[in-house]
C-alpha cells in the first residue's frame, strides 16, 4: 500500500483545479452528504425529541455519556479535574481515567453543551460518529488504497454502516467513533515516508492521544491489528527489501509517537493504573461476552434482514452485535479473496495475506476463552484463554475484537470492485458480481435504532429549586439511588451542570469502579444496606416491614453519604424495568418519616 507524497504548493496562489480534482471534490461532498443523511436515518428516533427520548436497549449508557459531556464542559470552565470527580459516588469519587470519559468530545463540544444541553450534544456527537466513520474510510480508501471512486465509496459505506458499528450506536460514543481508525491508519502509513519521521511521529503521537481519550479500548485493538498486519506483511519474502529500507524511518517515527503520546497521556495513564478508585480488569464475564461462532453468519436485528424476521439473538445484548455479517457476505468475502489472490502480482499478495491473517486472528480471538456456537457453551479451549489474564487484555471484552474483521472485509470488497472496474468482463459476469454484492449487502442495510420516551427531568431541578435545600456542593440523592438501572440522578446532575445552576453531589452513580470479585471492577459502588433495600423496592414493588434496625441503618448510610436532601419524583426512568414510585414513597416514609411536597417532587430534609 504505497504512499505518494503530496504535490508541493508554489509560492503564488494555486492554479485552478483540474477537472479530475473538481470531480473528486464533488464526490467528497456527495459522500459526506450521504453519510450525514444515513447517520441521521439510523438515529432518527432520537431527533424527534433529544431531551425526551432515549435509546430503548441502552438508555443507561446514554445517560452516562450525557453526564460525561456535561461534566467535561463543567470541569473545563471551572478548572476541575476532567479525569477524577467527587460529584458522584460520595465520598469516594470516581476515577474517570478508567471509565470511558470521552474527554476530547467533552472539551470540543463544551460550547454546544452549554448552548443546547447535554442530551442534544450527545445526539450530535453520536450522529457525527457514524457519518465521520463513513467519510473517514472513504477518504482513506480513495486517497491511499484504491484507484476507483466507486470502490472507495462502497468500502466507506459498508465499513461505516457495518453491523457492529450500528449496534454500538446504541449509545456508545466511544465504540461508534469508528472514524478514529482510518485516522490512525493514515498516521501509521505516513511513518514510512523517508526523511519525515520526526514530523510524522509528532502527528501520530497527537492522534494516539486523541484516540485514547475517546476510545482507549478501540485504540488497543487498532494497535494489535496494525501489529499483526504489518508483521505478516513484513515477513513476506517479496517485501523484505522494502521493509529493510523503510524500517529505520518507521521505527524512529514510532519512537517519537510513543514519546509524544506518553507526555500527553502521562497523568491519565497514572490515574488509570495507579490512581485512586482504580481497578484491574472488568466485572464482565469473558465467556458471556465472547462472540458466538455462528454469529458471523447471522443477521443483526436493526437491519432490513432483521426487520424481515431473519435477525438472531446470538449476542449477549443488542449493543454487542459485533460481527453478524451474514452468510452471503462471508461467502462473498472468501470469493473476493480468491479472485484477488489469483489476479494479484506476487508483491501484492503480501497485502492480501496480511488482510487474511489479521481477519482470521481477530475472528478466532473474538470467540473468547472457550468455544460457543448457537448459544451453546463448550469446554473446548481457545487461544484467548492464554491472553485474557494479561494486563489490558483483562480490561477488554473479547467479542469486541470482532469489530476489526468488518473493516478488513470492507477492504476486500473495495479492492475487488477496483479490480472488476479495471478488468474486461462480459455482461453476464458483471451482472453476476452485481447480484452477488446485492445479495450480500442489501440485507445489512441498517434501519433506525429503537427509541422510547423517557421521563422528563422534574421542575424541582430544571427551575433550580434544589438550591434552596442543598448547600453549595452538598449532597442530594434521588430515589432510587443512581445506578445503571436507575440513571436519573446523573441526568439531573448533568442538567444542573450544563445549565450553570451550580453543583450538587450524589451518592452512588453509574460508573466502573473497584469492588468486584478478585480485585476486578464492578458497575457502581459496593451497595450498602439502604440503597440495596430501596432498589429492591423500586424493582419489585414489594413493601417490606421496616424495623428500627432498618431505620438506624438508613440514618447511618445517609450520614456516610452526607446527604442533605432525599428526593423522589412523581416519575422516574428505569433502564431495564419500570420503577414502582408509590412503593418507594411508602418505604422511604417508613424509614425517614413523612416527606414534604416541593414543586413536583417529594422531599425529605436531612441534617448532613
From TrEMBL:
InterPro entries: DUF6311. It comes from the Bacteria. Keywords: Membrane, Transferase, Transmembrane, Transmembrane helix. Residues 77-396 form the DUF6311 domain. One of its GO terms (molecular function) is transferase activity. Residues 1-22 are annotated as: Disordered. Residues 1-11 have a biased composition (Low complexity). The chain crosses the membrane at residues 29-48, 96-115, 122-140, 146-166, 201-230, 250-270, 323-341, 350-368, 401-420, 432-450. This is Glycosyl transferase. It comes from Plantactinospora mayteni.
Amino acid at each position: 500500500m504505497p504512499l505518494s507524497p503530496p504535490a508541493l504548493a508554489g509560492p503564488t496562489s494555486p492554479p485552478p483545479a483540474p477537472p479530475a480534482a473538481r470531480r473528486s471534490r464533488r464526490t467528497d461532498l456527495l459522500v459526506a452528504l450521504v453519510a450525514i443523511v444515513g447517520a441521521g436515518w439510523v438515529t432518527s428516533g432520537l431527533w424527534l425529541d433529544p431531551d425526551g427520548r432515549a435509546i430503548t436497549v441502552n438508555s443507561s449508557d446514554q445517560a452516562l455519556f450525557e453526564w460525561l459531556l456535561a461534566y467535561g464542559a463543567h470541569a473545563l470552565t471551572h478548572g476541575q479535574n476532567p479525569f477524577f470527580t467527587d460529584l458522584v459516588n460520595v465520598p469516594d469519587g470516581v476515577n474517570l481515567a478508567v471509565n470511558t470519559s470521552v474527554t476530547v468530545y467533552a472539551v470540543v463540544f463544551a460550547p454546544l453543551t452549554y448552548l443546547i444541553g447535554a442530551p442534544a450534544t450527545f445526539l450530535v456527537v453520536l450522529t457525527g460518529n457514524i457519518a465521520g466513520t463513513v467519510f473517514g474510510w472513504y477518504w482513506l480508501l480513495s486517497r491511499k488504497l484504491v484507484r476507483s471512486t466507486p470502490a472507495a465509496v462502497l468500502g466507506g459505506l459498508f465499513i461505516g454502516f457495518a453491523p457492529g458499528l450500528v449496534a454500538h450506536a446504541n449509545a456508545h460514543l466511544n465504540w461508534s467513533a469508528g472514524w478514529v481508525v482510518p485516522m490512525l491508519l493514515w498516521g501509521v502509513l505516513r511513518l514510512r515516508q523517508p526523511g519525515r519521521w520526526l514530523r510524522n511521529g509528532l502527528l501520530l503521537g497527537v492522534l494516539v492521544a486523541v484516540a485514547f481519550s475517546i476510545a482507549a479500548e478501540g485504540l488497543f485493538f487498532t494497535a494489535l491489528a496494525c501489529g499483526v498486519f504489518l508483521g505478516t506483511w513484513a515477513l513476506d519474502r517479496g517485501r523484505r527489501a522494502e521493509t529493510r529500507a523503510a524500517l529505520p524511518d518507521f521505527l524512529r517515527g514510532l519512537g517519537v509517537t510513543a514519546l509524544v503520546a506518553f507526555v500527553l497521556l502521562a497523568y491519565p495513564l497514572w490515574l488509570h493504573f495507579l490512581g485512586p478508585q482504580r481497578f484491574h480488569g472488568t466485572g464482565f464475564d469473558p465467556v458471556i461476552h465472547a462472540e458466538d461462532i455462528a454469529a458471523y453468519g447471522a443477521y443483526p436485528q436493526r437491519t432490513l434482514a432483521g426487520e424481515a424476521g431473519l435477525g438472531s439473538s446470538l449476542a449477549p445484548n443488542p449493543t454487542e452485535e459485533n460481527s453478524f455479517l451474514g452468510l452471503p457476505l462471508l461467502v462473498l468475502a472468501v470469493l473476493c479473496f480468491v479472485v484477488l489472490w489469483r489476479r494479484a502480482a506476487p508483491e501484492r499478495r503480501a497485502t492480501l495475506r496480511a488482510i487474511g491473517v489479521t481477519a482470521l486472528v481477530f475472528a478466532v480471538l473474538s470467540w473468547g476463552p472457550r468455544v460457543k456456537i448457537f448459544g451453546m457453551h463448550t469446554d473446548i479451549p481457545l487461544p484467548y484463554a492464554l491472553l485474557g489474564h494479561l494486563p489490558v487484555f483483562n480490561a477488554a471484552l473479547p467479542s469486541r475484537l470482532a469489530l476489526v474483521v468488518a473493516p478488513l472485509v470492507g477492504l476486500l470488497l473495495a479492492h475487488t470492485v477496483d479490480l472488476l472496474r479495471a478488468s474486461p468482463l462480459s455482461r453476464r459476469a458483471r451482472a453476476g458480481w452485481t447480484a452477488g454484492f446485492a445479495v450480500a449487502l442489501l440485507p445489512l442495510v441498517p434501519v433506525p435504532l429503537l427509541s422510547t420516551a423517557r421521563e422528563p427531568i422534574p421542575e424541582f431541578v430544571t427551575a433550580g429549586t434544589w438550591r434552596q435545600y442543598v448547600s453549595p456542593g452538598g449532597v442530594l440523592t434521588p430515589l432510587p439511588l443512581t445506578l445503571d438501572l436507575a440513571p436519573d440522578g446523573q441526568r439531573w446532575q448533568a442538567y444542573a451542570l450544563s445549565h450553570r445552576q451550580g453543583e450538587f453531589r450524589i451518592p452512588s452513580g453509574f460508573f466502573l469502579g473497584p469492588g468486584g470479585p478478585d480485585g476486578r471492577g464492578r458497575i457502581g459502588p459496593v451497595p450498602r444496606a439502604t440503597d440495596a433495600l430501596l432498589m429492591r423496592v423500586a424493582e419489585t414493588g414489594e413493601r417490606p416491614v421496616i424495623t428500627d434496625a432498618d431505620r438506624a441503618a438508613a440514618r447511618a448510610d445517609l450520614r456516610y453519604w452526607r446527604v442533605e436532601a432525599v428526593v423522589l419524583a412523581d416519575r422516574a426512568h428505569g433502564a431495564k424495568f419500570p420503577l414502582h414510585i408509590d412503593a418507594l414513597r411508602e418505604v422511604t416514609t417508613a424509614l425517614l418519616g413523612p416527606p414534604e411536597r416541593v414543586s413536583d417532587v417529594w422531599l425529605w430534609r436531612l441534617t448532613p
